[in-house]
Amino acid sequence: MIAEKHKGYVYYRCQAVDCPPNSIREEKLETAVERLLRDIKLCDRDVAAITDQVDQCLKEEDPAKLRRGRQLQLDNIDKRLDKLTDALLDELIDKETFKQRQETLLLDQIRLRRELAEQPEKALSADIVRQFLERLKNLAEHYVSAPPAEKREIVEITTSNRKVINKTVYLEPSKWLTDTQQTLGVLYGAQSRPTSRTRHRDTKKNIKQIQEVLESEETRKAVSGLDKIFGQN
Asked: Residue 100 and residue 92: Cα distance in Å, rounded?
């Protein structure tokens, strides 16, 4: 849809010949976007509570320690494979037993190598999560006060399936935003549960979900775009 000014107001309409000749006021479009962004219900207390939760859990997991542990397991598998080959050559085991044990070790080797390769170079931190949540918390307010160019960028980043049917605006949040809201919803619930070993295990699982959301290609592009927009002010 393309903007046109008429009697002091800005209207949007599609210029394609086969589209219905309807139009919609700019204010209605902006209200619809603002309403969608305000569905992200985050306050300072939420950001602080979730960040603290992430920080407590991450302190128990040193990425460098995890990497060293996986590397030690790989080294151990190499030694076991060598011993297994020696046992076959010395006829201490038969070929069928050799193949079965070798297959098990090779599968473990592949899994560990994959885990090492997938381990992010930049580990998740409470500060990264906090900055991400701050961006979300302030999106609606920033959109309202943003100049037109920034508003268009925010709409592109945060929404999908944008339609206007008659005078009604239909918007859906982008997939990265939907995934984030679902993950945060789980964390909200986790904050109110009693402290227990089960709760701690659930918290680690929830934080893993946050990490997966933040490391997805779509979220990275979205965050990069938002950082660029927020950084302009």
From this structure: 15
pLDDT in tens, the chain (233 residues): 888 888 888 888 888 878 777 788 889 999 999 999 988 877 888 788 878 877 776 665 566 677 788 889 999 999 999 999 999 999 899 999 999 999 999 999 999 998 888 765 555 677 778 888 888 888 899 899 988 889 989 999 999 888 888 888 899 999 988 888 887 775 555 444 444 444 455 556 666 777 777 778 888 888 888 888 877 54
Distance (Å, whole) CA 40 – CA 143: 13
The count of C-alpha atoms lying within 13 angstroms of the C-alpha of 16, restricted to the half-sphere facing its C-beta, is 5
Q: Quick check: helix, strand or coil at residue 159? A: strand
For residue 203, give every residue at least 6 positions away whose Cβ sits within 8 Å of its Cβ, in sequence order, or none: 53, 57, 190
Sheet with 24-25: strands ordered across? 2-6, 9-13, 24-25
Half-sphere exposure for 126 (CA within 13 Å, toward CB)? 15
Q: Which residues of 69-87 are buried (b: 16+ CB within 10 A; e: fewer)?
A: ebeeeeeebeebeeebeee
Return the DSSP state at 194: P
Helix count (H) and strand count (E) of the chain? 10, 5
Q: Name the burial class of residue 2, with classes exposed (0-12), middle (13-18) and buried (19+) by CB atoms within 10 angstroms of its CB.
A: exposed
Tell me which H or E stretch contains 170.
strand 168-173
Instruction: Give, as one character, the DSSP assignment of residue 43.
Output: -
